[in-house]
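ok so for the tutorial part 2 we go from a plain amino acid sequence to predicted C-alpha cells. step 1 is just haveing the sequence, like this:
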Amino acid sequence: MRQLPGRHDEALLALPFFEPRHVDLAHTVDRWCDAHIDLWSDCRADTDPDKIGRRVLKALGSDGRLEFLRPDASDSIAADGDLRSLCLAREALAYADDLADFTFSIQALAATPVLRHGTDEQRRRWLPDMATGDLAGCFAVSEEDAGSDLAAISLCAQRVDAGYRLDGRKAWIANGTIAGLYCVIARTGDGPGALGLTAFLVPATTPGVRVEPVAAIAARSFCHLVFDGCVIPENAVLGRVGGGFAIAMELLERFRMTVGAAAVGFARRALDTALARARSRKVSSGQLFDLPTVRATFADMEVQLNAAALLVGRAAWEADRGNRNFGRHSSIAKLYATEAAQEIVDAAVQLHGAAGLVADSVPERLYRQIRSLRIYEGTSEVQKVIIANTIDAQRAERIS
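step 2 — the prediction. this is what the C-alpha cells look like for a chain of 400 residues:
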C-alpha cells in the first residue's frame, strides 16, 4: 500500500494551541487515511460521489471516527468533537482525498445542531445512527435567492393541525442525495426577517420531499431539495420556534474555520506534489527546483501555507477556550486559508506545466476541488464584511 507524506506539520502540532490528545488524534487520522486509501483510490472526474460517500461514511463510523457525535459519548470521546480536533481531522482527510473530507465534514455539520440543540428524544433517535455512519445527514439552509443572506430564506413552514407543512425549495445541499435526515431552516413567520426562522428535522422518507441532483465541477453529492406539501410533526422542531437563525449562524461560525483547515490540507498536498515534481523534473543541467523563479514560488507557497495553518489553529483554540468573539477569528481563518489555498494549488498546476492539466492528475483534481471552499459557509466577500464589522468592537475591547 502506497502511503502519502505526513499530512500535518509536526512543528505546528508542537505549538501551545494543541494538547497531547490533539497530536495523538492527528496521527490517528493520518494512519486511518493510510489504511483506507482504497476507499477513494478509484475516484475520477466521472466518479459517482454518492457511492464513494456512502462507503467512506460507513468506514468512518465503523472505525469510530464519528463517535463524538453520540449523545452519550464519554468525555474522552466527546473531546474529539472540539474545534481543534475537527480542524486537524479535516486537514488530514482533505490532504488524502476531497470526498473523504467532504463526507466527514457534512456529517459533522448535520449532526452538530442536533447534538447542541436537540431534545433528549431527538438526540437518542438520530445521533447513534449518524455516529455509526448508518444514517447520513445534511444541513439545508441555502436557497437560490437566499445564499449568504439567511434573512431572505423563503421556504415556508405553515402551522397545520398535524404540525407544520413545508413548501418551497432549498439549493446546493451537500450530501442531500444520500442523506436520510435533513436539518432544514424554514420560515415560520413568527417575526420579520431573521426572527421568523425555525429549524426542523425532516426524515428523507417524508412524503412531499423531492431530491434534484446537481452536478458540480468536482464530484460531490449535491442537490436541490423540493418540499411540496411536506407535513412534519410538532416534535420535528429543533430548538425553539423562531430560533433557526441563531442555530444556523452558530453552526456557520463554528464550521468556517474547519473549511480553512480543509484548505490547508488541499494546499499542503498541492505543495508536496509540486515539490516532488520540481525535484524530479530535469531542466538544462539541473532540476526544475534549482531555477530561482521556481524557488521563489515555493517560498511564497510555504509562507502562505504556514500563515493559513496558524490562523486556523488560533481560531480553533479561541473557540475551544470559550472566547465569545471566536467567530471573528473563524472568518479570518476561513478567508485567508481558502484564498491562499487557491493560489497554492494554481501555482502547483503552473509548476507541473502541461502535466498539471491532464485529467484526473493530482494537480488537476485539486484545481477543481479547491474552488468551492471560497464559497462554502459564506463566500470570501461575506467573510470580509464580517471581519470589517468586528474591527471597531475589537478596538473598543482593547481600549477598555
